[in-house]
Amino acid sequence: STSIKLWRELGYEVVLFTDVGPCSDDYDLPEGVHRVVLPSFFDIKPGNYVDRARDIDQAIKDHGIDVMVYHAWNSPIMLWDLLLYKSAGVAFAAHCHSVFSQPLRRAWKYFADMPPVYHLCDTVVALSEMDRAYWANFNDSVVSVANPLTFDLDGVELSSLAGKNVLWLGRMSDEKRPHEALRIFAKVLEAEPDAKLLMVGATPDEAYMDTVYELIDTLGIRDSVVMCGFHRDVLPFYGMASALLMTSEYEGFPMTLSESQSAGIPCVMYDLPYLTLTKPKKGFVAVELGAIDAAADAVVDLLRDLEYRRSLGREARDNVEELARFDFSGVWRDVFDRLAQSAPEQPHDETTRIMWETLHGHYRTGAEHRRLEVARLRREIAVAKRAAKKMSHNAEKKHRKTKTELRQIRSSRAFKTGRAITAVPRMVRRALRCLGIGGSK
Q1: Cα–chain-centroid distance for residue 372?
Q2: Percent of the chain with pLDDT over 90
């Protein structure tokens, strides 16, 4: 919504296309902004894409769309949408909202298909200089634009940093690593038992939230962790914090970091050197991904030294003030001016083109081999499970048969007669064993 307000201030009419309908968590749209709800790309297949295409085509006609800023940057149907918009004479800008290599962390084969798709875009908007450098290999019109602040920087009150509250804020999901935040904080408590962890965020996945609460109980830290849930306005939480703990394994442009820096709060985070806000290398302490002990030590160092906290807090505020001076309006005006001109040309020489095609081709092959190998292993596991189930069933069946036969033997007249005849000799044998003169069993 911040970008929409900015574009409106520049004099552009804005229409918001979404794949889901309005919900209670939505931010308010500026007056005069229309919303078009499309058939969700989650449900789109080759057989029903025509429904989405018709809705897009009608919206283009109804609202006079001439530029599409496309935010679903890694959507598998981006190519279909791109071709549809361009065939309708609409300029197409891909806005990448995460680090370019993020699909690699999940071994998505689509990563290798993205460069030729991005080459077809009229321009590409990236969130960091590193991402700009990557996409520039495939498109000659790439610009780095930081996310604008969603609040008035002058209106943000600086935290006093006087307490021992550690803030973790984000979506409860694997890539944010809330479980590691809890393990880090458990170690912090060993040194600073008065510390508190404020966890702000939620997820619709109840099973995932259950794992978070279970870990809190396993670590024995329930009395020191405050689960705050989802809040649209998060700035008050920064006023309570003395340090921010950020455990994300990757980020494109973390608003959590810009918000905390606005309140002058130092951060302990996993090292993400490509982020715009970490370029100055001030206002935070970075440790290696997954380095729980090092992160805990860094938090303890902050909690034990108020002047150290304030020093890093001042650096953090300086960082975000530099960001606030960025000419967002000028850059976006330039982006839209570019889109009014011709499409990009092939940016690099033949050798560079072959290099990237080779790299992505090999990755595509490797990802496909991995997919096939995983499928093969799943089939073998399924066969082994069926065999184990059958063996277990047969063993149980044999066990039941043996027990039945044993009961039949013990209830037979011959068995009972034999037990009666041997009763006296068995008593004598037991007596001799007690005297220590009997033989072995």
Answers
A1: 25
A2: 56
Determine contact, residues 134/124, Cβ cutoff 8 Å. no
Is it the case that residue 147 has pLDDT exceeding 50?
A: yes
Query: For residues 312 and 296, what is the distance between their CA atoms, to the nearest angstrom?
Result: 17
Which residues contact residue 230 at a Cβ distance below 8 angstroms, ignoring those fewer than 6 apart? Answer: 25, 200, 201, 202
Long-range own/partner contacts, residues 273-276 (CB < 8 A, 24 or more apart): 274/99, 274/128, 274/129, 274/130, 274/131, 275/128, 275/251, 276/127, 276/128, 276/129, 276/144, 276/146, 276/323
Give residues with Cβ within 8 angstroms of 10, minimum separation 6. Answer: 329, 332, 333, 336
What share of residues in the chain are helix, strand, coil (percent, to 5)?
Answer: 55, 10, 35
Burial 310-335 (b: 16+ CB within 10 A, else e): bebbebbbebbeebeeeebeeebbeb
**Do residues 323 and 276 lie in contact, with contact meaning Cβ atoms separated by under 8 Å?**
yes
Q: Is 121 exposed, middle or buried (0-12, 13-18, 19+ CB in 10 A)?
A: buried
Structure tokens at 18: 């979404």
The secondary structure of 109-125 as a DSSP string is GGGGGHHHHHHTSSEEE
**C-alpha span between 338 and 340 (Å, rounded):** 5
Please list, in sequence order, all residues whose beta carbon lies within 8 angstroms of the beta carbon of residue 6, skipping any fewer than 6 positions away: 148, 328, 329, 332
- Residue with the two structure tokens 């803030």: 167
257/323 Cα distance (integer angstroms): 12
Q: Which residues pair with 200 in a beta bridge?
A: 169, 229
Instruction: Assign 3-class secondary structure to 226-245.
Output: EEEECCCCCHHHHHHCCEEE
Extract the tokens encoding 100: 């370019």
The DSSP H or E segment spanning 130 is helix 129-135
Can you tell me the distance from the alpha carbon of 183 to that of 247, in angstroms, rounded to the nearest whole number?
11
What is the rounded CA–CA span in Å between residue 151 and residue 149? 6
Give whole-number Cα distances, 70 to 19, 73, 133, 328, in Å. Answer: 12, 7, 20, 18
Cross-strand partners of 93: 69, 123
Eight-class DSSP state of 157: P
Average pLDDT, the chain: 88
pLDDT tens column, 272-306: 999 988 988 899 999 999 999 999 999 999 999 99
Kind plus residue range of the DSSP H or E element containing 93 = strand 91-95
Closest of 239, 228, 230 to residue 156, by C-alpha: 239
